[in-house]
Amino acid sequence: MKLISATPSPYARKVRICLAEKGIPCELVTEVPWNSTTQTPKYNPLEKLPVLIVAPGEAGNDEEVAVYESHFIIDWLEAKFGAPKYPAMLSSDLDERLTAQQVQVVADGICDALVIRFFERMRPEDEQSKEWVARQMRKVDGGMKWLAGKVASGERYMVAGRFGVADIATGAVCGYLDVRFAEYPWRTTYPALASYIDGLNARQSFAETIPSPQKITDKVV
Ligand SMILES: N[C@@H](CCC(=O)N[C@@H](CS(=O)(=O)O)C(=O)NCC(=O)O)C(=O)O
After folding, report:
1. Which residues form the GST C-terminal domain (predicted)?
2. Which residues line ligand 1 (CB under 6 A)?
């Protein structure tokens, strides 16, 4: 399998962590999705990465399959590479699973707002909308407060004491803040969240997927 990914992408990082935790080998195809050189439109009409490209026969598929939208890629991996042969990233308990997916909704939503904020910041100063930025940062602030409230102090994992999607998604958004919005004070505002994230960052799947910035050469906005 191949994963089209980008070095700062929190969404791609969730999938990379999931693949690593399941021990599924996957070739990483790193690119800049904002540049015209991107391969994403070839596989995804929404032109977004991550895209998981599954060769014929790799997962019981006759034809090549392209899977996209990070939360769906994770669901797809859970369905195709599930327990007990592979470690589960979602609980078999319905309510635990739904709680974890709700956490992913909020974490991904914070990332969505941060991406909008990132590009608004690329506009010339006098063209940036203060109202639009304030609206995005309200979502980030409210989302981070909600996530921090889900971390019981001293708990290593967010849902039912087992590592899974909620931890992956929360780790990804905090890593994205660090790489793109280092000035955002989530660690000082939420010390229990910070120590929870430090615990997750000690996992090999997190350590080998630390995000880094990338250079966007095309004019995007
Ligand atoms: N909801 C999508 C969001 C993915 C996304 O926005 N990816 C960005 C790259 S990054 O922000 O994650 O680095 C992208 O490809 N954007 C290209 C575009 O929106 O045209 C997911 O969860 O996969």
Report:
1. 93-219
2. 6, 8-9, 11-12, 33-34, 47-50, 69-71, 108, 115
